[in-house]
Design brief:
Layout: E1 3-4, H1 17-28, E2 36-44, E3 52-59, H2 61-69, E4 77-79, E5 86-87, H3 88-103, H4 112-124, H5 133-140, H6 144-171, H7 176-183, H8 187-196, H9 199-208, H10 213-220, H11 224-231, H12 237-244
Parallel strand pairs: 1-3, 2-4, 2-5
Antiparallel strand pairs: 2-3
Helix pairs in contact: 1-2, 3-5, 4-6, 5-6, 10-11
Length: 250
């Protein structure tokens, strides 16, 4: 009863009752199973509870369920990181990936769609890219290219959004050092991002190639207003009024 099964860190979508039933039958015949793996955590809460300390299962949910159904009073356990209490709020995905990694060794194996769902969930919650593709691939037992294929659209959108914010802040007069402190992106990288979409290229697309502003915005990963600020850069007031009066800025 001291152990908690937290479904949000469980790598599969559901438990297998068939597996649990077979384990219960084996226990009745005197079988013994390896200990289940657990981890102490802090700041854990569920169902509206206040944050508290808990002991979560990282591996062995089916064995734990079988022991419960067999009315066992005690279960042999080992700790993943003995003597350490992980912060559940900040290390939830570490716990989830641990479960996926242990799944490679035994038990009902994760399906490909379960692995993909987990990789995408991590990527969506990790715009700072703390969890690298190589690390996710190793934990899930797949190739780095497979993980990249699963999450490429998420990473692309995150990068475009980040770059758009950087351009906007610079256009508002922020220094590159201030932008680096705000976004957590290194100043040299901010310099590269700003210079990549230089004014000359944007002007050529708009004035010579007659590309519409929304096309240019998408091409450079910018929002529309920031794109217009680049288009109007260096233009006379009369020219700016002329361009804006064309009804193109919508």
């Amino acid at each position: 009863d001291e152990i908690v099964w937290e479904k949000d860190i469980y790598p599969r979508q559901n438990k297998s009752q068939k597996t649990i039933d077979s384990y219960v039958e084996a226990l009745g015949l005197g079988a013994t199973f390896p200990p289940i793996e657990v981890q102490r955590v802090s700041n854990y809460s569920s169902n509206g509870e206040s944050p508290h300390d808990a002991i979560l299962i990282t591996d062995g949910v089916h064995r734990w369920s079988a022991y419960q159904e067999a009315k066992a009073e005690t279960i042999e356990t080992i700790e993943w990181q003995p003597g350490i209490s992980l912060d559940y709020l900040t290390q939830k995905f570490d716990l989830k990936l641990r479960g996926a990694e242990k799944n490679l060794e035994h038990g009902d194996r994760l399906r490909g769609d379960d692995k993909m769902a987990l990789a995408r969930e991590i990527a969506e919650a990790d715009p700072e890219k703390r969890y690298k593709e190589e690390m996710i691939a190793k934990k899930l037992g797949v190739s780095r290219q497979r993980v990249n294929d699963w999450i490429q659209d998420i990473r692309t959108a995150q990068t475009a959004n980040r770059d758009s914010i950087i351009h906007r802040l610079v256009r508002l007069g922020w220094t590159q050092t201030e932008v680096a402190e705000k976004t957590g992106v290194a100043q040299p990288r901010i310099h590269q991002i700003i210079n990549f979409a230089n004014i000359g290229k944007i002007h050529n697309f708009f004035f010579e190639d007659k590309k519409p502003p929304h096309w240019i915005a998408e091409h450079f990963g910018l929002d529309l207003l920031t794109t217009w600020s680049y288009i109007l850069e260096g233009q006379s007031d009369a020219k700016r009024f002329e361009l804006l009066g064309m009804g193109s800025i919508q």
